[in-house]
Design brief:
Layout: H1 2-12, H2 49-56, E1 65-71, H3 86-99, E2 102-103, H4 106-113, E3 122-130, H5 133-145, E4 151-154, H6 168-176, E5 180-183, H7 202-221, E6 227-229, H8 237-245, E7 250-252, E8 271-272, H9 283-288, H10 306-309, E9 312-313, E10 319-320, E11 326-330, E12 343-346, E13 350-352, E14 355-357, E15 362-366, E16 374-384, E17 387-397
Parallel strand pairs: 1-3, 1-8, 2-3, 3-4, 4-5, 6-7, 10-17
Antiparallel strand pairs: 9-11, 11-15, 12-13, 12-16, 14-15, 16-17
Helix pairs in contact: 3-5
Length: 424
């Protein structure tokens, strides 16, 4: 008994921390694994700044060029001066395909202009104006056959008006099929002056033509209408400013030129393929061959129809019965230009020996040999600020004085009674 008591007293004097030193008092515990050292993850190699930039901004071919083709009616000779026969339209699409020149979308064109996407060195944009049903019935099947896209510029007063106009449902189908819709105003009138019937001022009328038509298309089709085409290709400073203020990214004229990366976004030229150039050369051939003049970089309008900017004789789109007429033009409205650079070209003849008087700014030429019956184009070439520019007009010769072909303006159709008006 005394022996056991002594042993207990001995244990009581030992520090508890020494328990592991007393063999018979050790507890069996699960072995704790040795801690694994935490290794720092290897640092990712720094991404070169140039790689990030290249990913965000792809390499852009700023030397690429674009030509824009402009069509209206695809319905044969009965359609008048704005028409091209369906067979000819298909032949032109086939020629584009065989040439290997790429047809690009308006979306890609604008992305290239913004520096977001590159395009082939030579590219074509196809546009069809006004909203004629032939664009839908004739144009679309041919475009699809060759794998091409196009942009349809619509003026909204002509929509769903019956006869030869497209409907909103057909525009929706175009959008669903990947075609693009641009704006061509409400009433398709010369935007440089307000019509007499408009009660308000010029600025309010211009704003309405640009913004209401855009709103109609956007709200009815659920799209963003980014591009605009000037009626008849006509514009001036205040019009271009208003177009940009209305929210458009680009605007197109009807004066053909090779468009470069820095061409002015609101004076982009188009080749009207229903017309002919000097020497009876087809506009389509000039466009497809990229042999026309280049648009100046970031400059205002290159040129417009002479009849809209100057007094001409014969006047634009009129008929003369004189087989050897005097051809005149007052160049005062063209602004400052090099007087020594002025020349006149006449279709079928090329450069003619016209006389230019710098004091009166009149250029004049007396036709020496009788003209053939039909249409004749006059082109005035001149140079300003180091850029070559042109102005042109068309007149007709008929020995019998027959009226000229129908005017360039498409008919302003009246909506059918009973039709639900478009949302405005």
């Amino acid at each position: 008994m005394n022996r056991k008591l002594a042993l207990l007293l001995l244990l009581a004097t030992l520090p508890f921390t020494a328990c592991d030193k007393v063999p018979f008092l050790k507890k069996k515990v699960a072995a704790t694994p040795a801690p694994v050292p935490i290794l720092a993850a290897p640092a990712a190699p720094p991404v070169p700044t140039t790689a990030v930039t290249a990913a965000a901004r792809p390499a852009i071919d700023t030397n690429a060029q674009v030509v824009v083709l402009c069509y209206h009616r695809l319905e044969g000779k009965a359609g008048g001066t704005l028409s091209i026969e369906p067979a000819v339209f298909e032949k032109q699409m086939e020629a584009i395909k065989e040439s290997g020149v790429a047809v690009i979308s308006m979306k890609d064109f604008l992305a290239w202009r913004r520096g977001e996407k590159t395009i082939p060195p030579k590219s074509i944009l196809i546009t069809i104006d006004d909203g004629y049903i032939s664009g839908f019935d004739v144009g679309v099947p041919i475009l699809k056959k060759y794998g091409f896209t196009a942009t349809f510029f619509i003026y909204t007063n002509y929509l769903s008006s019956g006869g030869k106009s497209m409907s909103l449902d057909q525009l929706r189908k175009l959008d669903q099929d990947g075609f693009e819709i641009g704006c061509h105003t409400v009433s398709h009138q010369d935007l440089r002056r307000k019509p007499a019937k408009w009660a308000g001022d010029y600025e309010s009328w211009l704003k309405d033509e640009l913004e209401r038509s855009k709103k109609i298309l956007e709200e009815n089709l659920g799209i963003k209408c980014s591009v605009f085409a000037y009626p008849f290709g006509l514009h001036k400073d205040v019009v271009r400013t208003a177009v940009e203020a209305a929210g458009y990214d680009a605007a197109f004229t009807t004066y053909g030129a090779r468009i470069g990366h820095t061409a002015n976004a609101f004076t982009l030229g188009r080749y009207d393929v229903t017309a002919k150039m000097a020497g009876n050369q087809q506009v389509f051939d000039v466009a497809l061959n990229f042999s026309g003049m280049a648009a100046p970089s970031s400059a205002p309008a290159m040129a417009q129809d002479a009849a809209t900017s100057m007094v001409t004789e014969p006047m634009h789109n009129t008929t003369t019965t004189e087989a050897t007429p005097v051809i005149k033009a007052n160049l005062a409205t063209l602004g400052d230009f090099d007087p020594g650079s002025v020349e006149m070209r006449l279709s079928g003849l090329g450069i003619v020996p016209a006389k230019y008087d710098a004091a009166s700014k009149m250029i004049e030429y007396k036709v020496a040999k009788p003209l053939r019956e039909g249409s004749h184009t006059v082109i005035i070439g001149y140079q300003t600020a180091g850029q070559r520019r042109e102005a042109r007009w068309v007149f007709h010769y008929s020995a019998t004085g027959e009226a000229p072909p129908e005017p360039v303006a498409p008919p302003a159709a009246t909506p059918k009674p009973g039709k639900k008006p478009l949302k405005k």
